[in-house]
Each structure stands twice: as C-alpha cells, then as structure tokens.
Amino acid sequence: MIRSGRMRDSVTIVEPTQALGERGQVLREDKVIARNVPCSIAGLYGQEFEQARQLFPTATSRVIMRTDSRYRLTTKHILLAGKRRLQIGYVDDRNNRHYELQILCGEEA
User: Fold this and answer.
1) For position 71, what pLDDT does the model report?
2) Could you tell me the maximum CA-CA distance found in the chain, to the nearest angstrom?
3) What backbone phi and psi angles, to 5 degrees, belong to 53?
4) What's the predicted TM-score (pTM) here?
5) What is the DSSP string of 16-81?
6) Closest among 62, 63, 73 to 98, alpha carbons compared
7) Where are the domains of the chain?
8) Would you identify the CATH topology of the domain 9-107?
9) Other CB atoms within 10 Å distance of the CB of residue 97
10) Is residue 1 over pLDDT 60?
C-alpha cells in the first residue's frame, strides 16, 4: 500500500523509437508518453536485491507508482528520472487491482 508522502520522486515515461539516418546509423528518439509522474524510487539491497535478480537479472531499483488509464507500462518503456534512464524489466500490478504498480528497473547506459 502506498503511504502518504512516499511519492517524492517524479519520472517521465518514454517509449524509445529507433530510426535510421542517412548513412544507416541508428538515431535515438524517445516518444514521451507521460511527464512528471509521481513515484517512489528506491535502490535494491540485501534479500530484496537477490529476489529481484531472479525476476530481472540487471535490476538495481524498485519504482512504485499509481496506475493511470492513459498509459499501460510494459518492458518496452523507459523511465527518465533526471539524468537516469531506467529500463523497465518487470511490472507487478499487485493483485490486478489496477491501483499500484511495483516496477523493477535497471540502469541503462
């Protein structure tokens, strides 16, 4: 359950698109899905880290946010938190209640 005051962070949800340039190089452009989505971002440590690695091998962070009917998060999306790019590896909709999402993410280079 999300407690009051826990959503201190915000992210931008983007969908990466790749296009080829004139010389065949990959041009990276991101399509913005939602901006300033309130969430909680926390690092993974100890037993939680080990359990998360079983679901998503490069997991480094856990993001908790409320669901929104305007978008449906998948592993194709990326979360931008300041200068950090968090690749979504696993999305858990607790009990399919469509209220709270727990997302395992890994840092993208």
Assistant:
1) 83
2) 51
3) -65, -20
4) 0.83
5) EEEEE-TTSPEEEEEEEEEEEEEEEEEE--HHHHHHHHHH-TT--EEEEEE--TT----TT-EEEE
6) 73
7) 9-107
8) Thrombin, subunit H (2.40.10)
9) 8
10) no
CB neighbours of residue 52 within 10 Å: 21
Do 10 and 72 contact (CB within 8 A), yes or no? Answer: no
Instruction: Read off the tokens for 106.
Output: 């890994």
| Stretch among 9-18, 41-50, 89-98 having the lowest mean pLDDT | 89-98
**Alpha-carbon torsion (28, 34, 36, 38), positive or negative:** negative
Q: Count other C-beta atoms under 10 Å from residue 6's C-beta.
A: 13
Q: What is the dihedral of CA 13, 43, 41, 82, to 10 degrees?
A: -60
User: Tokens in use for 65?
Assistant: 């946010």
What is the amino acid identity at position 63?
Answer: V
Q: What is the per-residue pLDDT across 30-86, written as a single tens digit (0 to 9) for each? A: 889 999 999 999 999 999 898 888 888 889 999 999 888 788 888 999 999 999 999
Question: Which of residues 61 and 2 earns the better pLDDT score?
Answer: 61
